[in-house]
Structures are given as C-alpha cells and as structure tokens.
Specification:
The protein is mainly alpha-helical. It is 71% helix and 0% strand.
Length: 182
Amino acid sequence: MADRSDLSTLMRLARQGNEDAYRQLLGRVSVWLRGVVRRGMVAAGRSAADCEDVVQETLLAMHLKRDTWDETQPLEPWLRAIARHKLVDHLRRRGVRDHVSIDDQVDCLAAGSDPDPDARTDSRRLLESLPDRQRRIVEEISIEGHRAAEVAVRFGMSEGAVRVTLHRALKTLAAAYRKGQS
C-alpha cells in the first residue's frame, strides 16, 4: 500500500476539489482494497471471484461518505472499516452465516458448581439501586432472556421505550459498578 500520509494528503486534496488527486487516490486505494477484500473473502471460506463487487461498493461508499473522514486521522483505518462492513453485507446477502459448534466443548464450558456468593450479593445490590421499572426491565431482558417486544406488552410500553429504558438502566449500573471499583 502507498504511504498512509500520501493517501491522507490525496484525500484532503480530493475533498478540496482536486480531480487529479482524486484519480490518484482511487487508483491507489483500489489496488489496496482488492487485497483487503480478497483476504476477507478467503477468510470467510468464499471464492475471491466476487471481490470486485465489494471493492466497487467500498469505493462508492468512500465517495459518498468522504466528508465523514476525520482529516486528523490516517485514511487507511477508515477505509478498512468501510471495506469490512461492505464485505459483511455482501456475505450476508449471499446467505453466509458464521456458526461454530460448541458441542465438543460442553465440558469445558460448564459453570463451576459453587459460584461466588459475594458476586451474587453485589449484583443484587446494584440491581436494587435502580428504580423499580428499570430494575424489572433489566431482570426480564438481561437475566430471564425475554425479548423487548414481550416486555413492552407486559409493561404497556412501546418496544423502543423498553430498549431506551434498558439502555439507561445498564448505563446506570455500569457507572455504579465503576464507582464501586474505585
């Protein structure tokens, strides 16, 4: 790949309207992206044949989102993130799903027979510090495994409101935990 600072400089110039810099940027980035996408396809167990589609989608996204790039940062990580998302989207459209069987590892994954009672007490104390509705939503979704839609019906709330309440509760719990650790 070309020097990162060169790519960043070319992107800055391209964003300022320099067409020659933009052509150079596209040429250099295209070559690099083909390698990145090819490695991603192979790692996913797929043929590199569809590589060019993902490269073109990534270049288009780079063009459309170029104003979101932070000029104080190198260009490569920003482009790599776009390429990764485009590759994942491509694989999903083709029905690729990651599945790792854990059947052979059940013995290794079994929980200990004597969990730490202090940890259970601390967790309960943290949960009890929440307002009643937040606590109940955390318990039903995070502990009991109910879906947000089910909890919304039980509480007479929209699913979105349940998710917001859950998010706020978890944020409060995280802050209380961090405070207790210091």
